[in-house]
Amino acid sequence: MKHFEANFDGLVGPTHNYAGLSFGNVASLSNAALASNPKAAAKQGLQKAKALADMGMVQGMLAPQERPDLYTLRRIGFSGSDANVIQQAAKEAPMLLNACCSASSMWTANAATVSPSADTRDGKLHFTPANLVDKLHRSIEPLTTGRILTATFNDPHYFHHHSHLPEHNSFGDEGAANHTRLCKEYGHAGVELFVYGQEATNPSAPKPQKYPARQTLEASMAVARLHQLEEDNCVFIQQNPDVIDQGVFHNDVIAVGNQNVLFYHEQAFLNTQHKIDEIKRKLDTDLYFIEVPTAKVSINDAVKSYLFNTQIITLPSGEMVIVAPTDCQENPAVFAYLNELLTLNTPIKQVLYFDVKQSMQNGGGPACLRLRVAMNDMEVAAVNQHTLMNEGLFGRLNTWVDKHYRDRLTTQDLADPQLIIESRTALDELTQIMKLGSVYQFQR
Ligand SMILES: NCCC[C@H](NC(=O)CCC(=O)O)C(=O)O
């Protein structure tokens, strides 16, 4: 049996915009006034996904969500026709309208936590959609996320889908952005690293002072239980609260792992050495811990360039490659570090740069845009094949984007009722292209 790590990238939705919705996420706050380009955003994402498929990687796409979310706006008291709902909300509560228009489901690293069948007791691949309770605009994602995941991984013989965790701060869950898996080969049982920002039920435990810790230990442990992982397959690590306060709102802004490599900043975790020892004890293979010192890359440079929000992928040849945003090339300290990294004796042999600036300006790099799903060939064959990237899908999705997307969107434009019609027309067509069935509420 063959094993792969597939990447499922979020297709950027037609309402991609900069609304400054994510307190604690430096890029989101500082680009709040910018006009976005949804068409360019979607195309940048498709280019990256296609490039990985061309390198022989298993690459899929996850459909975006329906926005504006009129159901949430009606639930909070706006009424009348769809156009009335939007216009009333724009007048009386523009920030709530913005929250209901975000295309944030594009960052599929936050869609769910995934445990491959090699790790789980029932031998199935487990998915738990993230509840994303810390941010209003993201807390409205999980139900549809669950539907899209079920329509994509649609064979109950192989895939076990859970509901998202209870919608309360005690169970704040941000999905795979705070989860990474180390292993010898993708098909061998690995060690799943759950990185949390705070312990919700222990008031004396360390936590950030300025910005929110979105992920709780309680949530991470609940996911590990649901996914039927053994204690020996799990390591729970606390993120350093000081770096959360410097803008590291998810662990994937400061660390990334692949197979036997953990690439992380010196200041990423609490009790780092102790946790490394635990990983070594639980995973019997040659491990590379690539720790980047502050003297070479400051937290500020890491947050600006997204050095750690890179994808480390293993090519079919067995070589590892880093997929980085072009912002890493533009930052002298980070670019120098990446060039140096290639001369060190690690499995990482190449860095490829991609322009994903439309996403970066909202705090989402290459790693945020993808959900990793380690699978064997039988599981890949059980996936909805219309979601897998190839020449055909790439062509169809680009044509679809050209037909339906605007090339400029400001938060003022979110009050335009025409955007509802454009967005629904596009998504309705998309469900046919990707054979998803009626995953959206407007289709039900
Ligand atoms: N993994 C990357 C997630 C980035 C995402 N940004 C946003 O939602 C910004 C949206 C805005 O401000 O318009 C977040 O912070 O959760």
UniProtKB/TrEMBL annotation:
Active site: 174, 250, 368
Taxonomy, superkingdom: Bacteria
Substrates-to-products reaction catalysed: N(2)-succinyl-L-arginine + 2 H2O + 2 H(+) = N(2)-succinyl-L-ornithine + 2 NH4(+) + CO2
EC numbers, comma separated: 3.5.3.23
Pathway as given in its UniProt record: Amino-acid degradation; L-arginine degradation via AST pathway; L-glutamate and succinate from L-arginine: step 2/5
SUPFAM superfamilies: Pentein
Keywords recorded for this protein, A-Z: Arginine metabolism, Hydrolase
Stretch forming the signal peptide: none
Coiled-coil region list: none
Residues the entry annotates as binding substrate: 19-28, 110, 137-138, 214, 252, 362
UniProt xrefs under HAMAP family: AstB (MF_01172)
Sequence similarity: Belongs to the succinylarginine dihydrolase family.
Function: Catalyzes the hydrolysis of N(2)-succinylarginine into N(2)-succinylornithine, ammonia and CO(2).
Quaternary structure and interacting proteins, as annotated: Homodimer.
Name of the protein described by the UniProt record: N-succinylarginine dihydrolase
Species: Shewanella morhuae
